[in-house]
Amino acid sequence: MTAPTTAGPFGALREQLTAAAGAFAGSSGAVSEILAGMVDDVDRALGEELEIFPVCHHSPASALAMVRRLRAKQPKVIYLELCEDLQPLLGELRNCRLPVAVQAFASELDGFPADWGPLSVVAPITEASAEYQAVAYALETPGVELVLVDRSTDHVFQWSPRRLADDAHEAPAGGDVEAAAPAGEEAALHGDAVGVEIGDLRPRFAELEAYLLHHGKVRHWSEWWDQYVEQPLADADHDTYRQVMVLIGSLFRRLRPAGSDRQDRDEDRERYMWTRMRQHLAASGADPADCLYVCGAFHAASRVEQFGLRADAPFEITPRTGTRWHYGLIPSSHSAIEAQFGLAPGSVSIAAATWTKAVARTGLSPFRLEGQRGGRTRGGGRRRAAPTPGPAAPVADRLSGYLAQPPAAQGLDEAELRGWCVDIVRLARRNGYLASTADAIAVFETSILLAGLRNRARPTPYDFADAAVTCIEKDVVPGRRDVRRLCEILFGGDRVGQVGYEALPPLARDVHDRLAPLGLDLEKRTIQRALVDLRASPELVPCSDLLWRLRHLLPRDAVRPIMGERRLGHRSIQESWDLALGRSQRALIELGYEGVTVEQVLEQRLRRAVRGPDATASVALEAVEDAIRLLDSPRLVDELGARAVELLAAERTVDDAPEVLRRIRRLLAHHRATGPLPAWCEAFVTTGYAHYCTLLPTAFLDEESGVRQVGAMLGFLFGMESLALSLGCDRSQLELAVAQSHPEAPAKVALLWAARHQLGLLPLAELRERCGALLANPLVVPAFPQYLSGFVQALEPVPGLAPFVVEVMSSAFARLPDPVLLPWLPTLITTLREHGAELVPLLVREAGRTFPGSLPALDAWVPPWSRPASPPAPALPAVASGPVAGLLSGHPEAVDAVAALLGCDGGWREEAATASATPLELTTLLSAHPETADAVAALLAGQPS
Question: Is 125 exposed, middle or buried (0-12, 13-18, 19+ CB in 10 A)?
Answer without folding.
Answer: buried
